[in-house]
Structures
1.
Amino acid sequence: MITNVTTESTSASVATIPCGPCVLARTVAVTKTYGTGALATPVLHGIDLELRAGEFALLMGPSGSGKTTLISILAGLLRPTNGLVELCGEVISDASETFVTRVRRRAVGFVFQSYNLFPALTAVDNVAEVMCLKGMPRSQARDVSRQVLTRVGLGDRLMHRPSELSGGQKQRVAVARALAGEPALVLGDEITAALDGRTAMEVMELLHAHVSAERGVLIVTHDRRLERFADRVIEIEDGRVVGDLRDMQRSPARREP
């Protein structure tokens, strides 16, 4: 449980901001503006949000509403213009890139819509590479990679490169990479957009199984079919949170057919 917030900054006011129980990520009054002066384009407007362990949450809204910008800020891939961002007990909004990268590698798994696999590497090495970046010896990382890929149904595709895999199989490799090392928070951006209905549901099953008392998942999506998996649905429009429905209690065992 996260009960205190540490920060690379020396600001006492930031360092003592309390978190709620099992908060994995939090934003306070976060804004984001692209460009300056006459070309300035505000995208996010004062976002206050907490993501908690034990939740499978969806972030939904129309195109251009700020969903991808917000999830990128939560992952430490993008800086807010103003506001506070905490990730697993660390303030990252005003920290150095080195510090943010270290926190992200330790705490976050990210699944991209476009897979972002290394084309020259096999499935095993695509997953293992991320764990090597975290400091795991390569031989151990490849063993863990084989286990995770087998768990997501790719035990017979371990030595295949991305060009030899279908879209659904590539997304499974991306999911395995995100789940390897059991990160506290898994984030995904429109990960089912290019998948057929059956494969999309199978990928969501894999991610839902990751949720526990110490881990959570947030997925950006337009796909209303995915609500059946969600404990929480956050609606964003024009850069503002306009709805936040919790405790939907739609676990896979209780899903509609």
2.
Amino acid sequence: MRRVTFFVPIALAAVAAAALAPLASSTPIASDSDPHVVIGFHESFTGPSTLAGTWIMAGAVSDSGTRTEQLSIGPSQNGRDAAFTVVVDYQGSLGTFRLVGRGVLGPLGDRREAAEGTWEVAGGTGDYAGATGEGSFAATGEFATNDVIGTGEGVLRLAK
């Protein structure tokens, strides 16, 4: 049972989620015509339902930094996977922003679990103040190493 509790946080590890740029600059390049972003993240469990790690983002906005995640997992309806909600706080050189998401993870109890779902922007500071957006994410977690790696993509519209 520890495995289910331990790995559920991959959900957003969750949010999220996830660009594949080797180095992200701190220059906002938001565009009203194409607000698409990709976010990449790598994190580890800090508790049964919390994670912390790093992220990079490329596309309409280019930034990177640290992130923390709080996960809430619901009961399994079929014994194989479970629904979850997640709140992910991002800290970058342009400010902070929060994504909230929901999704499904599983297969429960396996050595490796996967999660996928959707996210939306729920606040921000600095260049992210007043931002809006939504998207999807996918992540995979590994029990043996305590690692969660994921990607997310969607739109991020800065208010500026």
